[in-house]
Predict the structure.
Amino acid sequence: MENRPRKAVVLISGGLDSTTVLAIARSGNFQCHCLSFFYNQRHEVELMAAKHIARTFGAHQHLVLNLDLGRIGGSALTSDMAVPKNRDMKQMASGIPATYVPARNTIFLSHALAWAEVIGAGDIFIGVNAVDYSGYPDCRPEYLAAFEKMANLALKSAVEGPSSIRVQAPLLYLSKADIIRKGMELGVDYAVTHSCYDPDPKGRACGCCDSCLLRKKGFEEAGAPDPTIYTRC
């Protein structure tokens, strides 16, 4: 008897990391239910990329939820606060930057958890990384372990039956270069992904924010051409 694909909720933003995670989930024979958010972020262009990527990888469905995190504020991604530019790796590692969105991954994972229970998915995939990242506290392995433990205390399906949920973060300990190499092996076209925190009105990457600099560094270290069109800060 042929094994049916397992269902998984895959959080996708349209960025390099989450696209690679979707490719990994698809290669693992998961039926992928993609979840994205419009949370009043300044880089809305990423949602256009996410929709294209979900179609390209044959996602079973793609749900986009509206969350107005701009009303809460506290982040350069949801307000007119300046996005940090031209920082070196030491500066990026020195503290939590202004682009941190309060509780974002907790909010996203909670919605993914609810949807996973409804559709009977046993896995949630998220593209967090604890190596080449900007110091966000909700990208740490201890955070993910704590969320998974909480999730299995909260689910009706886990309390009343044998079901449980796994939070999978396959990029957690990979460098950006290793992520890019993995994605290329799986056929990811990084030209359609978007990483910039502060794109111009045409959606072009600034080339100077933390995310752009980490992306550039990743392609350089991977020995691969960066297909991104950058503007000058």
Summary: The chain has one domain: 6-222.
